[in-house]
Design a protein that fits this description.
The protein is mostly helical and 91 residues long. It has four helices and two strands. It has a two-stranded antiparallel ribbon with strand order 1-2.
Length: 91
């Protein structure tokens, strides 16, 4: 997913990427702190109801932008995010 390089993601003051508490539910799904996601939506003036209806694009944006910033600031790699970034194995 490409994100506008000028895009500024607003985050709650003091929030860390690890606060999302990412974890795998199964091979195809992840879970995270949706209360934090809703706070991020509100800070960025995104319609929370619409995000709940179709969370994929917004969640992808939050994860990709925040994780890139997290790593650039010297943050520790996250196992779930690294698994999402890993290329699909050839079959």
């Amino acid at each position: 997913m490409q994100t506008d390089p000028n895009f500024q993601l607003r985050l709650p003051e003091g929030a860390q990427f690890t606060d999302l508490k990412l974890r795998r539910c199964d091979a195809e799904a992840i879970d995270m702190d949706m209360d934090l996601v809703e706070r991020i939506c509100q800070l960025n003036q995104w319609n929370v109801a619409k995000v709940r209806e179709n969370p994929g694009p917004v969640i992808s944006t939050i994860l990709s932008v925040w994780y890139k910033t997290h790593l650039a600031a010297g943050g520790t790699p996250d196992a779930v995010m690294e698994s999402l970034r890993a290329p699909e194995p050839l079959q």
